[in-house]
Amino acid sequence: MHAILPLIEVSDFPEIKRTSLTTLQVNLGYKCNQTCVHCHVNAGPNRIEMMTPENIALIPEVLKARNITTLDLTGGAPELHESFRDLVRVAHNLGVKVIDRCNLTILFEPEQENLAEFLAEHKVEVIASLPCYSLENVDKQRGKGTFDKSIAALKKLNSLGYGKEGSGLTLHLVFNPQGPTLPPEQQQLEADFKRELKHHFDIEFNNLFAITNMPIQRFGSTLVSKGTFKPYMQLLKDNFSQSNLDNVMCRSLVSVDWNGVISDCDFNQQLGLPIPSSVFSTKEPHLRDLIHTDPEGHDIRIADHCFGCTAGSGSSCGGSLSDEPVMNVSSI
Hints:
The structure is a single chain. By secondary structure, the protein is α/β, with parallel strands linked by helices. It has a single domain (5-310), classed as TIM Barrel (Alpha-Beta Barrel), CATH 3.20.20. It contains 12 helices and 8 strands. The chain has helices at residues 5-8, 53-65, 84-93, 115-121, 135-142, 146-159, 186-201, 217-226, 229-238, 266-270, 277-280, 307-310, and strands at 23-27, 70-74, 97-102, 125-129, 171-175, 207-210, 253-256, 262-263. An 8-stranded mixed beta sheet has the order 6-5-4-3-2-1-7-8. A hairpin with a 5-residue loop joins β7 and β8. It starts with a helix and ends in a 22-residue tail after the last helix.
């Protein structure tokens, strides 16, 4: 694995500051039933890092102390954490919206057979990865057999009401490009997904999120190996849009790793860039510090990978940030 931080640490990205905190994004661990090329956390079946019970117990305290409205659970496959369901129950009872970033195939793993029903019962918003509506492209990016399992999982979620109008059960899909390119325009891509999935599989969903691949971890290392890291970074910089700065997710979100260390976003977390120690007056800002300290108004830690969130139509965990057209989609 190539070291990426030295390649991006010196940056001319504009300074940005935090607004009010609305979302707590928690990485419960790196264990996953898949190994995807674009994965920016380098997750996989052999990873053993998982959040401790002590850190899990802090999460509801932070939700209450900061009046946070959304708990965004990610991984790896967050559902593989033994405390996943208990945490969902507690957050749901607090009136907090819970998001599960689901890879779909997890629904068919051992001991997960009733996972879909559990998610529906607690009105968990499902954000599911599906990089394409064709078998060939999905299996190429995520492994053989992934597409068929993903379609079966979507059908199961649909059968429970997910993605159906008036059900109150939200199902969003996530698209990632397969290579060093920017995502196409999100609205048109969403229309294509909805048409093809409905026509071929009778599948429905709410929205499609087009997310730019970040040049870090496994994807960044692959770019370096192929000699395309610099062209991809130049692509992101050439497509920088100032208007996206107001809507980047790090302004209202805090990302927590499995050790409880907090960063401005999931990408900074994976680069080992925690929130600046000056915000909390501690050497390594931790989840517990959020109980007593509000980070609003403080500077956000930046590096060159931040151009990935502001290129073209912009990118966040909620998809594109604007309706501006993408100027140049490929670095090749």
